[in-house]
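Input record, target 12 of the design panel.
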């Protein structure tokens, strides 16, 4: 795995989340770490720090779990080029669900995608054929993994996340889609 050698007990949680976008989900699912305020962590903490203050968990075991989860996440992603190929071949209906904000979707989107509202999510999970090919799109490919895992957990087994998000799709496939950055104002 490309990041295996980059992860150690000294890796900060910020670095970890960049290397393995689904790491927060993986830590919460197995160890109840990082999913809520009471079990959260700071970006500056290291994996070793977090393990130590959570019942002295084995850092080797936690890192192994993170790497295994990352390998699984790779399997539920589609590359921008493969998505383009699926769209172009049109062998079946593909649902493109965009989880970005309404403003982001209105400014920049992949043709045929729909903004995922609560109503659309409910319709998809409750009424769509469970074999529907569903692609989850976000800005950079990190949040879409969580939503894809959620859909898969609800029986939508052919759901995948767009690796790298719409930003990678713009860079690798369709440069006519404008790229943008999200800037967060500090207090």
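The sequence produced for target 12 reads:
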């Amino acid at each position: 795995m490309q990041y295996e050698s980059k992860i150690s007990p000294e890796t900060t949680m910020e670095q970890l989340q960049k290397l393995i976008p689904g790491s927060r989900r993986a830590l919460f699912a197995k160890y109840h770490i990082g999913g809520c305020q009471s079990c959260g962590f700071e970006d500056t903490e290291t994996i070793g720090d977090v393990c130590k203050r959570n019942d002295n968990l084995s850092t080797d075991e936690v890192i192994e779990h993170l790497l295994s989860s990352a390998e699984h996440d790779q399997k539920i992603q589609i590359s921008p080029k493969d998505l383009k190929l699926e769209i172009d071949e049109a062998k079946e209906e593909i649902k493109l669900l965009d989880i970005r904000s309404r403003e982001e979707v209105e400014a920049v989107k992949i043709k045929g995608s729909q903004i995922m509202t609560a109503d659309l999510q409910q319709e998809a999970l409750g009424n769509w054929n469970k074999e529907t090919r569903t692609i989850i799109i976000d800005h950079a490919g990190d949040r879409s993994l969580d939503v894809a895992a959620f859909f898969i957990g609800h029986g939508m087994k052919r759901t995948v996340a767009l690796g790298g998000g719409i930003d990678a799709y713009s860079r690798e496939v369709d440069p006519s889609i404008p790229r943008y950055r999200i800037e967060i104002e500090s207090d």
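The longest strand covers residues 94-98.
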